[in-house]
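One-letter codes give the sequence; the fold follows as tokens. Both lines appear below.
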Amino acid sequence: MFTKSFLLVAPAAVLLSGTSVFALTAEEVWADLQGLASENDSAISAATEVKEDGAVVLNGVSIGPAGKPAFVTIAEMSIEEQDDGSVAFFPSDIKVVGAPGMTASIEEQELSVSVFEDEGGLGYAVFADMLKVVFDSSEGSGDTAIRNAGSFVFEGLEASYGRATEAMTVDLTADRLVYDLTQVNKAAMIDSTSVSDSADLVIAGTLTVPEGVDLAALDAPGAFEAAVAAGLAMDATMTSGASGGTMDERSEMMPIKAEFQSTGSSMKLAFDQERLVTDLEATGITLNVTPPGMPMAFPASLDSLGMTYLMPIVAPEGGDYQLKLNLNNLVVGEEVWSMFDPGAALPREPANLALDLTGQAKFDMLAMIAADTAGTAAPIPEPVSLDIKELAVKVAGATLAGTGAFTFDNSMLAAGGPPMPVGTADLRLEGGNKLIDGLIAIGLLTSEDAMGARMMMAMFGKPEGEDVLTSQIEARQGGSIFVNGQQIQ
């Protein structure tokens, strides 16, 4: 993946350096690039350099470590001052020279890179009718072989990066993104290829970097925890239109093939010192999956699939958490049904799932990471409350719904005991007996197993109509549990 950044080495070097460039002229930007490279034991040079009115035209540009062969060459690059005060780079014929065991290349159509003054720093923008990056990296052989290869192709690319006084911003749009990735790791039993084609890609993100934080050193012990505690934060969103692709896992452990399509998707990822949030959604999903050992693909479709996950990062007095899942109208193809229910004993209705759990918990992820690194005892997370805002499952004609609210007694945690819930949950099951009859008919349940299941339903459920049961489960202080008013523990 590092090959993608080669294209932007020159402008990115100036932008990330924090060097002030008050007069963005072509000559000064070119001089700053060379000086910055020298400071970092690298070199940017040109075989010929022609200064023109408001421009510098370079031929035979080489980028690489000082005193060593270049890893990027550019046949020609013009640096031109623009009417809006920016400076634009126009490279052509870019070639990448990889390390031993690696090859890479960049192809482009109408590519330009622009440097401009931003809030408190510099920014850059990339425009291209087409930008393609191809890479192939291999090491080892036989049982230790590792290979990562693939390509990324952007069409109609417009991307910008800004370095304001407190945050970095990235905005990217592309009419189309196509990627093809192959990963092989014999030791880990991985051998897979994935291909994806997405339209109307939009990415927007902000990275807040506190003063004194070095992003390049975040992998050092304790560096990431300290950076988050100091205010490192990110907020990013990505959306795409119609997408499709394939996945082929060829490993001996779990060979599987899949094809997928979606009418649209979105993703949000955000974190700061207080919380981590992920929010995913996809619509109009169709799947064709070929499980291990099967000669044919099994089709399925979904109207929508969504997941929201919220957890506290540092909340010693209690922070919000949430787990939300939505699976809307899952339809499985007749090919799947016919394998275990050829007589249609079970209704072929779409399946639905809705789950929304919220609450508060005392949590300190940074302290837990630090303790793990140091090999010391980590603080124990403590649940404070749990609200079952929604539980709704519908499958094969049966439905289960429920709500509830609990608090937790954590007095036993220090001694290694569990948190003890206190509260109630209300459940409603419709069509449970009919589902059991269907499972017996297709052989997934024996009559003896079904009898035990019906007895459990009779013990914990209160009849409210034909094949309808309700239950109220109450957990009381001290660990006692009541079901519909009757103590069972």
Observations:
- The longest helix spans residues 26-39.
- The first strand starts at residue 42 and ends at 52.
